[in-house]
Amino acid sequence: MFPKHLIMSACNYDDNVYISLHVKTIFRNPKVVKPYVVPSPEYCNLPAAAIQASSDMIVVVDSNAPAAHVAQHKWQPNTPDGHGTPFLFQRGKAASGSGGGPLRRMFKGPTGTGEEWQYPQALAFGVSGIRSQAIISITCDQEIITGGHADNSIKVISSDGAVTLETAHAHCAPVTCVGLSSDSNYLVSGSRDTTILLWRFHKELPSNSSFISESSTGPGTPSSRNNSSSHLIEKNRRRRIEGPIQVLQGHQSEILSCCVSSDLGIVVSCSETSDVLFHSIRTGRLFRRLDGVVAHSVCLSSEGVIMTWNELQHTLSTFTLNGVLIAKTELSISTSISCMETSHDGRNALIGINPLQNGRANGGNLQSSKETAIDIRSESEETHESNIINVPTPAICFLDLHTLEVFHVLKLKEGQDITALALNKDNTNLLVSTSDKNLIIFTDPTLSLKVVDQMLKLGW
């Protein structure tokens, strides 16, 4: 359990403390950032396909999505634990009957200590050939949205028990990627049916809330029919997922990646055989096409910079909302990007770089990748020779979004391929899941002491 006085002080951040943290993000002085491996990682639900870190909780979704195990760990960032770690961490509790209950345990037989610590598992039937990382999004309220279901649906599951809260149907084929806006107000889903659907996402309303006034109208009357219609409308309004409110078209093949921004009012998406497309949230219309730009993953910053990763050509590029190329860089042909994340201020980015395994990376073929990359490099050596990212892998690179220059590298050990990474809200902590089932938290250890000192000065 956390010491009571530390919980109280860590939970009661005021605006002054938040501002102090905001100006001391890991991007400000990354050289002072140090790694801290969370103890007993076998109990942390790893390796993860998705992570979310709030001010008091870490949600970890493992790589079995959509039938994923879900863990809630308690933590307090930037709060020393008294044993040399600059944060408090308490692993989540495994639910009795999780992972399928007595029936599953009856067939599993005896297990080791790590396997016995099973977290709740979502009930789902998935389809093959879809990356787990692409079909998971976690909302601001720690609810988990999953795609990749055999019934072509999108599901919302709880993080405290992996219970299915809601199911939405609209696609004609399995959902291959999902994306949430930073405020969790909009959801986009891409599918093998080549369309992207835009949904509005709502917070859960109290179960006893009712907006329909009952009237004593007889059956069959117009008022009764109107009442029935109103009930249906209100029922749909109370759902978490409303819509789809727009159907976004223009792709010719399976959607690989999609993202959405409420502030910018756009949806960015890519597919393997189509250009990168920009759609309007308000009208649903295609307003920009990046002609000739093929991407396997896209990312959108709060400042409107679009970052694209081409797995076959091993190129990372950034574009403006007007479709103008800002910067372009290449990676070594023996590496691949597994994760991309932008900073809160939209100026920087993090990329997780792994070595290619068995000739494959995210479903790509090494031989074709080599041929493509060699051809491109021979054409661009004269002009872009210095703009190549070549770092020991696995590693996390800090990039300037406007130049794609690497200004810092966090090196991981061999065998610690990166499966997921996440920044907390104030960007003072970076959480990384690795393939060898470790959870590593990168942070500035001196920041926790400064924060505690500032809170004491403020009277906490």
Automatic annotation (TrEMBL):
InterPro entries: BEACH_Domain, NBCH_WD40, WD40/YVTN_repeat-like_dom_sf, WD40_repeat_dom_sf, WD40_rpt. It comes from Medicago truncatula. Gene3D superfamilies: YVTN repeat-like/Quinoprotein amine dehydrogenase. Residues 74-106, 210-235 are annotated as: Disordered. Residues 215-224 have a biased composition (Low complexity). Keywords: WD repeat. This is Putative transcription factor WD40-like family. It comes from the Eukaryota. Residues 134-346 form the Neurobeachin beta-propeller domain. The keyword Repeat does not apply. The lineage of its organism: Eukaryota, Viridiplantae, Streptophyta, Embryophyta, Tracheophyta. WD repeats lie at residues 168-199. The keyword Nucleotide-binding does not apply. It holds the Pfam family NBCH_WD40.
